[in-house]
Amino acid sequence: MDFRLSDEQQALQETARRFARSEIAPAAAHHDQTGEFPRAIIQKAWELGLVSTCIPETYGGVGLSVIDSCLAVEELAWGCSGMTTSIMCNDLGLMPIVIAGSDEQKKRWLEPCAADFKLVSFCLSEPEAGSDVAGLQLLAERDGDDYVLNGTKCWITNGGEADVYTVFATSDRSSRHKGISAFVIARGTPGLSAGKKEDKMGQRASDTRVVHFDNVRVPAADRLGHEGEGFKIAMQTLDRTRPPIGALATGIARRALEESVAYAKERKAFGFPIGGFQAVQFLLADMAKDIEAGRLLTHQSAWMVDQGLRASKYSSFAKCFATDVAMRVTTDAVQIFGGNGYTKEYPVEKLMRDAKLMQIYEGTNQIQRLVIARELLKE
Ligand code: CAA
């Protein structure tokens, strides 16, 4: 067992770190306040090979392993998790094509995303089916060589900005998961439209919307896998994308720790820097220890995915643990900053707002516990 990073991994980490410090962090407060979408910044990240990283080299991509993408994501999220969510959403949307696309489909959808800057959305959640994926209602009715899609998706990251949408729809609602298929749809397809942008508590740089499907005609050739395989494709996708969510959460938490340590050295109370008091030292120690544990679980789960091992339980360990850590650490960071921490003059209130979303998206942490418990009971 060797915990050291290779030279290539260190170089990747350094590229992402420099980009986060020079381009992301300085713009984070502006995009947080305005909710303006940081397209130009994300495009620059793409130029550095930090976006759509799951596209295999055979299809023109950088083909990062999941563990390598975790290394990059932690650095980017240190700068701004909202921007990083939009960046990572490309891999979430492309992963079903990587997993289940035919060679022809991979050429048609992956190669253009490797050759040009494009944004991708993963359309799974619905107003009445978030945690319960098998209960989704978006209807895909077969009509000759096409499917016709009708319904609504919600909480769709990059929903108003995407060039490509990976969409999960059912041909038979009563069949639950067995009726679901996955489709790839291009922006501009008649009937596909994005609704209002959500006015979110945190991660305000990312674009989150409702997406409507009004008689959207999709050729059967753009269905991934066989009819009815969509649910498993979605689950296999989430197994692979949850470790990077752990990395994203670790980036938020690490930033909160670094800000807290710097503040604890400067801020004085009772005539001494507050870092001299055990009350603050113990908070800092717990933050550092928990961040390290979250990172280790994240890297272990990513390694398992990269080895082709069944990783559901470990991906859920990482997602659940690291995102709970991010919530705890950012809350404690606000505590260390005291009244200052509760104002927008200081960076930690944004980190706390951003961290909350991590416990909710890509499967709530209650769903992660459900996945873990089911795997335990199956063993
Ligand atoms: N890999 C392969 N197959 C899997 C699987 C996996 N990880 N998990 C389940 N399956 C299979 C099962 O073996 C079963 O197969 P059979 O039909 O052959 O028996 C089938 O799929 C159905 O599985 P379950 O009975 O376990 O399904 P369920 O309906 O009881 O529950 C669930 C599944 C875990 C609760 C699932 O619905 C779930 O993960 N929900 C959370 C959804 C989620 O994470 N959404 C995130 C949206 S994306 C997002 O948030 C991102 C963003 O904005 C940036």
Question: What key attributes describe this structure?
Answer:
4-stranded antiparallel sheet; binds acetoacetyl-coenzyme A; 4-stranded mixed sheet; 16% strand; 379 residues; alpha+beta; 10 helices
Folded structure, characterized:
By secondary structure, this protein is of the alpha+beta class. The chain has ten helices and ten strands. Strands 1-4-5-8 form a four-stranded mixed sheet. A four-stranded antiparallel sheet has the order 2-3-7-6, with helices on one face. It has a two-stranded antiparallel ribbon with strand order 9-10. The radius of gyration is 21 Å and the shape is globular. The mean pLDDT is 98. Bound molecules: acetoacetyl-coenzyme A.
Q: How are the strands of the largest sheet arranged?
A: 1-4-5-8
Mean pLDDT: 98
**What's the gyration radius in Å?**
21 Å
Shape: globular
What is the H/E order? HHHHHEEEEEEEEHEEHHHH
Structural class: alpha+beta
Number of DSSP E strands: 10
Give the bound compounds: acetoacetyl-coenzyme A
Identify low-pLDDT runs: none
Q: Strand fraction band?
A: 15-25%
| End-to-end CA span | 25 Å
Number of helices: 10
Q: Summarize the amount of helix as a percent range.
A: 40-55%
Major sheet characteristics = 4 strands, mixed
